[in-house]
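User: For my dataset I need records formatted as: sequence, then structure tokens, nothing else. Please produce one.
Assistant:
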Amino acid sequence: MNSINRVTLLGHLGKDPVYRVLSGDISTATLYLATSEAYKDPQEQWQQQTEWHTLIVWGKLAAYAHNKLRKGMRVYAEGKLKRRSFEVEGMGRKQVTEIIVDRIFSLDSNRSLNVSEWD
């Protein structure tokens, strides 16, 4: 039986994309996206809770993010959830959860880019 691993996020970028070109001219960018939720606490006071998400984009999506997206922009992103672990010298094993993005665009513009446009 197949399963679904799909994430849809709408939030604001906390900083400019971090763009890198790896060996073999493969480009990647890391983005930090904040999503917020407002709720009333038991004393009926409005509270806001912010979650931070790490987004990873590749290829043309990375170039798009590098050239068009900036801190503070409202961004829509779709992708899949991916957890990975690695060793940190002197600190042991670390786990991170990231969203591997295949569609992203700024709501400040009308142009989106999909993973199918990589090639």
